[in-house]
Specification:
210 residues; mainly alpha; two-stranded antiparallel sheet; 8 helices; 2 strands; globular; disordered N terminus
Length: 210
């Protein structure tokens, strides 16, 4: 059984049939390309803006576990010049490996949104967190707890775009305070390209709907 990256559903088989896309199939190369391009352009330190670029990419599904990597990738790429931790590609590979452990529907089945977990992964990578390292251990969990509270307060399940936007904005202030990343905390983008595909859409009750 494996998790389909496009639908987020559990499916029988090896996960390598033609047409399937899984975290294990290195299907997130397009995310790396976009993050490298962002750095080369010197576009800035607005993780929310980079997240919008990633979510608008033709390779990005409307919903599903791809978002468990996108949020952390945006935070890593926009923080990279400030933290100077070596090769961004290595950090993204590590993020994708960790994100592959979070299945679709983790929000419902685990009580942990993958977008929030993605922020925790990126924070841990930049902090060099380890199981026995005290520094950063509590801070990362407090950050994720605050993100989860904000997502829960949004009021409805099944909107990876909304929850990713909430997560990246809450995380940006933590990254700035704890890691001195200088991330831009921009106003949320209003407008959604996938609302008609989402039967659970909050409509005007969503801060990103227009």
């Amino acid at each position: 059984m494996y998790i389909n990256m496009t639908t987020g559903a559990a499916e029988q088989g090896s996960g390598r049939q033609e047409g399937s896309a899984t975290m294990a199939d290195a299907s997130l190369d397009w995310v790396k390309i976009a993050c490298f391009a962002w750095l080369e352009e010197g576009t800035g330190a607005d993780a929310g803006e980079l997240l919008e670029r990633l979510m608008a990419d033709e390779n990005c599904p409307a919903f599903g576990p791809a978002h468990h990597a996108l949020v952390g990738a945006a935070l890593l790429a926009c923080s990279w010049r400030a933290v100077d931790k070596g090769e961004l590609g290595d950090a993204l590979d590590e993020l994708f490996d960790r994100a592959s452990c979070v299945p679709g529907a983790a929000c419902a089945k685990w009580g942990v949104c993958g977008a929030a977990a993605s922020c925790g992964m990126a924070f841990a990578i930049l902090s060099g967190n380890a199981p026995l390292k005290k520094e950063g251990w509590g801070e990362g969990q407090r950050m994720v707890a605050q993100i989860l509270a904000a997502i829960a307060d949004a009021g409805a399940p099944r909107c990876c775009k909304r929850d990713s936007r909430i997560a990246v904005r809450v995380a940006s202030s933590w990254f700035n305070d704890q890691l001195h990343t200088g991330l831009v905390e921009s106003e949320p983008v209003r407008g959604c390209a996938v609302c008609k595909q989402n039967s659970a859409c909050l409509g005007s009750g969503c801060p990103f709907f227009s």
